[in-house]
Specification:
The chain has 383 residues and is α/β, with parallel strands linked by helices. The chain has a single domain, classed as Alpha-Beta Barrel (TIM Barrel). Helices cover 42% and strands 15% of the residues. The protein has 13 helices and 11 strands. A 9-stranded parallel β-sheet has the order 8-7-4-3-2-1-11-9-10, with helices on both faces. Strands 5-6 form a two-stranded antiparallel ribbon. Strand 2, helix 3 and strand 3 form a beta-alpha-beta unit.
Length: 383
């Protein structure tokens, strides 16, 4: 069965008549010229299937980042997750710092940090330090997160997440830019704080905020002039609609935020043929679907030290099928097919596309080969 956010009768599909697939039909955004330039990025939850070790996966991620820099990807974005094999990004700023030390140009993004799980002063210090160490390559993305167990294990009421994450974001930005900062909020009070160090980027690293179906979250991002992150959890037609509504609301609020400021992420795998791409991606994407369904069973604790085979033998809730995600939330196919789907996104207004090659323990060699094929056969069409 489908969860509420995976409802196949999506708002955009019903109202706008959008269709996602290899024929790639979208509602086109107004075009001002014929240029097709786009930026491309990498994204990873750092998934942890049972047969892998954290050390090996962190090493693989670093190799993906260094290869991505050489192949021309603009950034690598890392997700924060806790207490789950869904992702090893509990300390994503430390992971990004390791990547920063081994690269020179690729930007380092957080998609996302979960502000309610951090003290704002510590978060401001750590992000500012990473910005300095990386020579000003940090992009800071925030979001509320989805798993109630993450909040429960930190002793934080998930019902407070909206208010906590707004307060923390605003405090972090203020700490980055103000001397002798004093603030009394609902959850945090600080007096006469001088942040050391301050960020290298002036006035501070770009700030992004993730939103999905929450009107409240979208209004917060658009009304404040921050940038939107479009994650992999929405079907592509819904994600396009979200981006278009954000850009319009941001413009109406008087902010100059463009499509090039909105990273748009999809599960992604390209191979020489469509058959090969689906054959190689299927098991890894199915693991992602199974794990994501499983971890939602936990309001406290987690699935980390339980065998997935036992869960699969007793589960009563089925995730969406591989075919459904391949059609609606992933770009999987030959170079021509993937380029056609990206072109359709471009026609709908997307200018910054992020590829999640690293899903479900997909073999490192296959990931790197897919990245190389993408850089050789697809990226040049949008240069």
């Amino acid at each position: 069965m489908l969860s509420d956010y995976e409802d196949r009768n999506s708002f955009a599909g019903k109202v706008l008549g959008l269709k996602i697939g290899m024929d790639c039909v979208y509602t086109a955004a107004p075009q001002t010229n014929q240029e097709i330039k786009m930026d491309f990025a990498l994204f990873s939850h750092i998934p942890w299937p049972e047969e892998f070790t954290p050390k090996g996966l962190y090493t693989d991620l670093t190799e993906q980042a260094t290869a991505g820099e050489e192949l021309g990807f603009k950034a690598i974005w890392l997700a924060e997750h806790h207490f789950t094999r869904y992702g090893l990004g509990a300390s994503s700023l430390i992971i990004a710092s390791n990547i920063a030390a081994r690269t020179e140009r690729i930007r380092l993004g957080t998609a996302v940090l979960i502000p309610p799980l951090h003290h704002p002063v510590r978060l401001a210090e750590d992000t500012a330090t990473l910005d300095v160490l990386s020579d000003g390559r940090l992009d800071v993305g925030f979001g509320r997160g989805a798993a109630s167990s993450e909040y429960a294990n930190f002793g934080i009421d998930h019902a407070e997440s909206q208010a906590r994450y707004r307060e923390t974001i605003e405090m972090v930005e203020a700490l980055w830019t103000n001397r002798d900062y004093t603030f009394e909020g609902e959850y945090h009070t600080v007096k006469h704080i001088n942040l050391v160090p301050t960020p290298l980027q002036d006035p501070h690293p770009p700030v992004y905020v993730a939103a999905t179906r929450s009107v409240e979250s979208l209004d917060f991002v658009a009304s404040t002039g921050r940038r939107l992150i479009v994650g992999v959890v929405l079907n592509t037609d819904d994600a396009v609609d979200l981006m278009q509504r954000f850009l319009e609301q941001s413009k109406q609020a008087g902010h100059e935020v463009g499509a090039a400021d909105v990273p748009f992420f999809r599960y992604f795998y390209v191979a020489e043929t469509e058959e090969q791409a689906h054959r190689e991606a299927r098991e890894a994407l199915n693991w992602t679907l199974d794990l994501n369904t499983w971890r939602r069973e936990f309001s406290v604790g987690s699935e980390v030290y339980q065998p997935m085979a036992e869960y699969l033998s007793r589960r009563t809730e089925l995730p969406p099928s591989y075919e459904y995600l391949a059609e609606n939330r992933a770009f999987i196919g030959s170079p021509d097919q993937c380029a056609a789907k990206i072109q359709a996104l471009h026609d709908a207004g997307v200018r910054y596309f992020g590829c999640n090659f690293a899903f479900g323990g997909l073999d490192q060699g296959k990931q790197l080969k897919s990245m190389e094929l993408f850089a050789k056969e697809v990226m040049p069409r949008f240069a």
